[in-house]
Design brief:
CATH architecture: Roll
Helix content: 10-25%
Radius of gyration: 15 Å
Distance between the termini: 35 Å
Number of domains: 1
CATH topology: 3-methyladenine DNA Glycosylase, Chain A
Order of helices and strands: HHEEEEEHHEEE
Strand content: 25-35%
Number of strands: 8
Mean pLDDT: 91
Length: 186
Amino acid sequence: MRPSRRFFEQPVDHVARGLIGAILLVNGVGGRIVETESYDGEDPASHAYQMRRTLRNASMFGPSAHAYVYRSYGIHWCLNFVCQPGSAVLIRALEPLVGISVMRRRRGTANGKLLCSGPGRLCQALGIDKRLDGASLLRKPFSLVLPEDHWPVQQGPRIGLTKAVELLRRFGHRDSRFLSRRFATS
């Protein structure tokens, strides 16, 4: 089922969990979402912390169901799905399914596990850059289909942060070999 804007207007953690198992294509290239992270305006690790708008995070305050694309550490592009104002879901990893030869060429590797495991790799494989910042997720070049069934989801702390590291806002498909990093087991 294709999502409506209403899906993205839910609390960001609910959206992040609900995207696990969804199929995401950009210009016909992509796969199954297997890992996400959620951020909102009350989260010290968020670009929209304390609901402060900047040039960089402007898309986080635009309409829901749009892309927020930014560069991380001046190197890698990251794709986020805007939810309620000041909140977004970072797409961390995909299981590659469609356009694998294009992804391999863009990434310069034949290793399927390394094509889309991590937000920077994912954006490189799908050809995502700043030009898609603010673009609607509900029309081309994006194609998004929500899972029909609930997928087994693990939840844990987000990766690579120095603030709010204790928050369990990383979601992943429990059995996927395409995660950017395995979840800690207790």
